[in-house]
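Hey, sorry to bother you again with one of my protein questions. I've been staring at a protein lately and its backbone has me curious. I owe you a coffee for this, so here goes:
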Amino acid sequence: MRVTVRLFALQRQQLGTREVRLELPGGATIQAAWEALAATYPVLGPARDSVRFARNGEYAPTDEPLADGDELAVIPPVAGGADELPGASDLRVRRIALSPEPIGDAALAELRAAVATDADGAVVTFLGRTRETPGTPAPGEEAQARRFAGQRVIGLEYEAYEAMALRTLEAIADEIEARFGVRRLGIVHRLGAVGLGESSVAIAVAAAHRGEAFQACRYAIEELKARAPIWKSERFADGSVWLGAPARTGPPAEEERA
């Protein structure tokens, strides 16, 4: 059978391609596909403990069998119910998007206005911005990061497994509704180059009370960073470094949220 392997971020950069076609025996598992891939491209081998896998756009365990024509995505480290409140509107509003366009003041104002209703006493917003100091390199990028020690970050570059990223953000929104009773939120994440001081992600949450709005906004950004297949590369004057940690494939356990 034939399987298409999609590559992102560091693995895409290492192989110089976004896709690899594999010929596998019938019934081969995701683990077998990885082993075949790593045998052909040994540079991928050291990443095994830090990558996750998605079969046809959904996270999947390594013992899951593949079928002819499947798409297998190698997911490198990613840059992460309450009752209705009295008087709260039942209206659900969601604005979830990946955008190559800058998130300026006008876009943020539009996002805030889109999610808020007359039933809402709180609107909490979050902006993630490009800073000049470096973050934590992804596994396998430590040596590359040391090359730029002491240098100033001049920008970021984002890429995403877009269809899966949007589904993940929708799932996070569902979890926010179930856990906090918050039904109105917007999430916009940049793609492509993001300059120093520019916004890479905007989140707006509207709720009847501030407690639920703050909880929902924090949950949204923490889960986006932990789970969404969106990758971030820091750019320096003479090179770049991929950032991130191994993706979490589902919502946090109860004890993690305590």
